[in-house]
């Protein structure tokens, strides 16, 4: 991956920059909205996300980097429970995907993915986190997670 391709990959993430209201839908629970802010760091080489979430979700911070081997992204995830995870990430054609299917900083007790779809106006991302018990089990919805840009 050359510098031009790397910059193009970073530029695709500009749509995420800003402040978002985050709405989580857990079965049987009323959860107030949370807040998420995406901003560039270290001369625009990394996209940092800080999220404040009501219970049962933890507060979190992520750092998104371009993967020079694949042209995709790696999301480094940290949360207020002390959980650290590494996700393979793509953001193409308005579809944001996060995928964790192998052990990283913690054992892999289940596979996990998020698939979100960006609205035509760029102000809403609606998606869901899904989990699978093992590599042969199908994914099942864990909870819906929607981002709405705060103006």
UniProtKB/TrEMBL annotation:
Protein's organism: Streptomyces spinosisporus
Protein name: DUF1579 domain-containing protein
């Amino acid at each position: 991956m050359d510098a031009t391709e790397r910059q193009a990959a970073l530029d695709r993430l500009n749509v995420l920059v800003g402040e978002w209201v985050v709405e989580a839908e857990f079965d049987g629970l009323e959860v107030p909205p949370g807040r998420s802010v995406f901003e560039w760091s270290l001369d625009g080489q990394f996209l940092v996300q800080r999220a404040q979430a009501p219970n049962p979700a933890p507060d979190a911070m992520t750092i998104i980097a371009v993967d020079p081997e694949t042209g995709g992204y790696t999301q480094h995830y940290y949360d207020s429970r002390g959980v650290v995870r590494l996700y393979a990430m793509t953001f193409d054609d308005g579809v944001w995907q996060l995928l964790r299917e192998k052990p990283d900083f913690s054992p892999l007790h289940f596979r996990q993915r998020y698939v979100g779809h960006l609205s035509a106006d760029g102000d809403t991302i609606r998606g869901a986190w899904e989990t699978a018990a093992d590599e042969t089990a199908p994914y099942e919805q864990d909870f819906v997670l929607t981002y709405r840009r705060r103006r």
